[in-house]
Amino acid sequence: MDQICPNCSNTIKVNFCENCGQKKFKRIDKKYIWDEIQYTVFHTNKGLLYTLKKIIQNPGKTAKEFIDGNRVNHYKPILLIFVLSGISTYISFKILDLSKILGAYFADKNINSKFMGDLMTFLSSYTTILMLALVPFFALTTKIVFKKWGHNYYEHVVMNAYILPKFLY
User: Fold this and answer.
1) At residue 162, what are phi and psi to the nearest 5 degrees?
2) How far apart are CA 129 and CA 126, in angstroms?
3) What's the CA gap between 127 and 167, in Å, rounded?
4) Which end of the chain has less neighbouring CB within 10 Å, N or C?
5) Cα(73)–Cα(164) distance, rounded to whole angstroms?
6) CA 108 to CA 22: how far, in whole Å?
7) What's the whole-number average pLDDT of the chain?
């Protein structure tokens, strides 16, 4: 069924107006509101759970699918690491109170060195950020090691972004 574009008054015959790109008009319903809430609050309107399931099953295959162009159902890899890192940090420090657990562990092991205590506190507090910062290094390493694959550096960034959550979480 053709619609008149509310933006430029041309006839819309497909999903988008050929003149201005306006999406075909749909009535606001429960699905529309749910999609908006997901997108606005969680920015997970498409593919997060699907991608997590695929990464748990086979991270290498998931990365290969994305690089080979099968991107419709997959969550964007860089955004994925940031979302998972945020969730991991929240769980570690707000729910599990990791700093208290590590403090008790270090006290039990008699690690009383000021430097060692500070180092371990820093590493435990910023593990996720350190892992994010290391993705470019991991990508460079895998590009060198697997240069016969013929992938460019940015494709290796994507591969490592999909493989990192498997080891991080």
Assistant:
1) -80, -30
2) 5
3) 12
4) N
5) 19
6) 63
7) 81
